[in-house]
Write a structure and sequence with these properties.
Largest sheet of chain B: 4 strands, mixed
Oligomer: heterodimer
Strand content of chain A: 25-35%
Radius of gyration of chain A: 23 Å
Number of helices of chain B: 16
Strand order of the largest sheet of chain A: 6-7-8-3-9-10
Helix content of chain A: 25-40%
Low-confidence stretches of chain B: 157-185
Order of helices and strands of chain B: HHEHEHEHEHHHHHHHHHHH
Strand order of the largest sheet of chain B: 2-1-3-4
Largest interface: A-B, 30 and 24 residues
Structural class of chain B: mainly alpha
Shape of chain B: elongated
Distance between the termini of chain B: 29 Å
Order of helices and strands of chain A: EEEHEEHEHHHEHEHEEHEHEEHEHH
Strand content of chain B: under 5%
Number of domains of chain B: 2
Distance between the termini of chain A: 39 Å
Largest sheet of chain A: 6 strands, mixed
Chain lengths: 326, 391
């Protein structure tokens, strides 16, 4: 922990009855850092955000945000954070401007200053004629932007963006990512939670991979990918493979537990322990079962591959997601 | 100071949202008051008519005595405003048989020897009786008709305890040739009775939903979490919503009064200010209860169910249907424990009888104490569980 540490989490645990949503997490986030929390639905990302926002109390462990303890100094924490989440919304029957004015009163921002900030935020997001519309009349993208304006009005030092790009079109999502990066350059610390693999790879300084309440791995996108550098991924364009053919290929390749074979839209994806001859072995096996091969190539492991490898394979994730849904 | 500015901001916010929702404005300020006022007005009649629950019910009198005294009983009852549909027959068995068939709802029998017992009662204190048969299938009807009948024939009862009437009775018995029937009790104009009920029910019905339903909606839509994450004190939210709803309650009070006075020619025996004060006290009690319920993290559907339960319970136990003094056993205990009973009592005493509000010390003390208690308890619960409510 340095003097630039804005978020410090130590052995943070949250249980709901017998279910452990967050399991002894340890983490520090520095000032101006864009930290991504990546994990499937139910992994515990939103629970961590709620804990750090002081909306729920931890079962055990401690955490501080902007130098204030989340248990003992919740009011001070709240003054210094902004939250954009589906669970923290704006009044739908008010315009974005009216919502911001209400919040400026509650945050004790003097009138003139509040008007300037509201103007600045609305201009920054180019609301134009939309600022006079009620929030319920805005599209998902504009509502998200309005929520970000509300979260930034009091100039927080820490911003929590929880699944903020869900439901956004690609252009809006990219614009939001760029805007967030610019905020971090100004010194705002951002916690970005998502279950989309591509997002944190592109924008985050560091990523924490969460699974079943645990922080499985923590590092820069590059470090995480290096951690799975001992994997080999082969992609084959092979149309019309039958179930029997796939089973025979699996047997011939003799794939072990951590390896995976996935066939979707004529693409066969095989991930295995480091094996320089894997492409050749796959090609031989496919020819042996009479399959037609249009193309074959070896891929560099992506963050998704890293995520799957670090969380115990795709089947484990499916089991976890199913259990969460139950 | 911050608590006040925040409260004003919350109240203003509530108003902005409210006026944009035309359905809410219509339902809360017009439809609910209009519905209850018209329903009560239609049921109880306007100010010009004395409301009687027994007036239009078919009843029959069987005179087995055939004396001057029994004839006077018949004349008095038949000529009163409470027995418009009273007929006479000599066939007691046929009359009683007509009870279950909805032909008659009550049979009043004057037994043979009625006048004789009355004449001798001064000497031996024996009691002259009138027998009343009623159709028990109609809930509450027996007590209604027996109460009204007792009012009319009480001077035949030698053991009557009300002193002024006893003295008058003695005088009357002295000249039994012309028996007089003395009517006890007060007759209130029909709509004034209705007014006491309407104001209370309209406020409870609208306020409970506005506060508990509003908070539940805020929780479900995530705006409650937004407020909780701001530096606002939960007390500001309570105060802001209270101010907003007090203004709506004031408008509703005047809507009901306006409709009652101009549509049904009601003329309450007290000042408008007294009625407004009582109406707002009922609104505040309901708000306190609604805030308390909101702390239990209930959904919008549960709020609606609870609201109907509350209104039905108040109808049953708070003197709206049956005066709480007439309730028995557990029902009486519940009625005496409900602060709303005291509010309705105060409504009746002021609107019907014209008692000054400040003279009703018990009613006022119970109301104010319960408002303060409910608000303190609500604040503690909402403050303690605010994070739980926000997630």
């Amino acid at each position: 922990m340095t003097e630039d540490t804005v978020i410090s989490i130590k052995d943070l645990t949250k249980k709901f009855g017998h279910f452990t949503a967050v399991d002894e997490i340890n983490l520090t986030v520095e000032e101006g850092e864009l930290y991504g929390l990546l994990g499937p639905n139910g992994a515990g990302k939103t629970t961590i955000v709620r804990l750090l926002c002081t909306l729920i109390q931890p079962t055990s462990g401690t955490a501080s945000v902007a130098g204030y303890d989340i248990r003992e100094q919740a009011a001070q924490v709240r003054r210094r954070i902004g939250v954009v989440s589906d669970g923290v919304m704006l009044y739908k029957d008010l315009t974005i401007e009216e919502n911001l004015k209400l919040l400026s009163t509650l945050y004790e921002i003097p009138n003139e200053q509040a008007n300037d900030r509201i103007r600045e935020l609305l201009d920054m997001f180019a609301f134009k004629e939309k600022e006079k519309r009620m929030v319920k009349a805005l599209s998902t993208g504009w509502t998200k932007k309005a929520m970000i304006c509300a979260a930034l009005l009091h100039r927080p030092s820490v911003l929590f963006l929880d699944e903020v790009t869900t439901g956004l079109d690609p252009q809006s999502a990219i614009a939001l990512q760029e805007f967030t990066k610019s905020l971090c350059k100004k010194g705002v610390t951002v916690i970005w939670t998502t279950h989309y693999m591509g997002e944190p790879d592109k924008i985050c300084d560091r990523i924490g991979i969460m699974f079943a309440g645990k922080l499985v791995k923590n590092g820069t996108p590059k470090e995480l990918k290096l951690a799975v550098n001992d994997l080999t991924v082969v992609e084959v364009d092979a149309p019309n493979l039958s179930h029997e053919q796939l089973q025979k290929v699996k047997q011939k390749l003799n794939l072990n537990g951590s390896s995976k074979l996935k066939y979707e839209d004529s693409k066969l994806l095989i991930t295995s322990d480091r094996n320089n001859d894997l492409a050749e072995q796959v090609s031989t096996a496919l020819v042996g079962v009479g399959a037609k091969i249009r193309a074959i190539n070896t891929k560099i492991p992506s963050l998704e591959d890293a995520f799957i490898a670090l969380t115990g394979g795709e089947e484990e994730i499916d089991r976890f997601v199913e259990a969460g849904q139950k | 100071m911050k608590i006040l500015t925040d409260s004003i901001a919350i109240a203003a916010n509530e108003f902005r949202q409210f006026r944009r929702n035309r359905a809410s404005v219509l339902i809360s300020l017009l439809l609910i008051p209009l519905f209850f006022t018209v329903a009560q007005g239609a049921g109880r009649g306007s100010a010009g008519s004395s409301y009687s629950p027994t007036a239009d019910i078919p009843m029959v009198l069987v005179d087995n005595d055939h004396t001057l005294a029994s004839a006077r009983v018949w004349q008095t009852l038949a000529g009163s405003q409470d027995f418009h549909r009273l007929t006479q027959t000599s066939d007691e068995h046929a009359a009683i048989a007509g009870l279950g068939l909805k032909k008659y709802y009550a049979v009043i029998v004057i037994p043979k020897g009625f006048q004789g017992i009355l004449q001798s009662s001064e000497l031996n204190s024996t009691q002259a009786r009138i027998i009343l048969y009623t159709d028990d299938s109609e809930p509450g009807f027996t007590s209604q008709v027996s109460g009204t009948l007792t009012n009319y024939v009480q001077n035949f009862d030698p053991r009557i305890e009300v002193q002024p009437i006893v003295s008058e009775l003695q005088l009357l018995r002295g000249r039994i040739g012309g028996v007089e029937i003395i009517r006890r009790g007060t007759s209130f104009p029909g709509f004034n009775i209705g007014l006491t009920v309407i104001l209370a029910i309209v406020q409870i019905f609208a306020v409970f939903y506005e506060i508990a339903g509003g908070l539940s909606r805020e929780r479900e839509e995530g705006t409650f979490a937004r407020l909780i994450l701001s530096p606002m004190n939960i007390g500001s939210m309570i105060l802001g919503k209270t101010v907003f709803d007090l203004i709506l309650s004031t408008i509703r009070t005047f809507t009901v009064l306006g409709l009652g006075i101009f549509l049904y020619r009601g003329h309450p025996n007290t000042q408008i200010g007294t009625i407004l004060a009582l109406s707002l006290l009922i609104a505040l009690m309901t708000m306190g209860l609604a805030f308390l319920v909101s702390a239990l993290k209930i959904g919008l559907r549960a709020v609606v169910i609870l609201e109907f339960f509350l209104v039905l319970m108040l109808y049953a136990f708070s003197g709206l249907l049956i005066d709480k003094e007439l309730l028995l056993g557990g029902a009486a205990v519940i009625a005496n424990s409900l602060p709303f009973s005291y509010a309705f009592d105060a409504m009746r005493r002021t609107i019907l009888v014209g008692r000054p509000l400040l003279s009703l010390t018990t009613d006022l003390t119970v109301m104010v104490t319960s408002i303060v208690g409910l608000y303190i308890f609500s604040y503690i619960l909402l403050f303690r569980f605010r994070e739980r409510l926000a997630t």
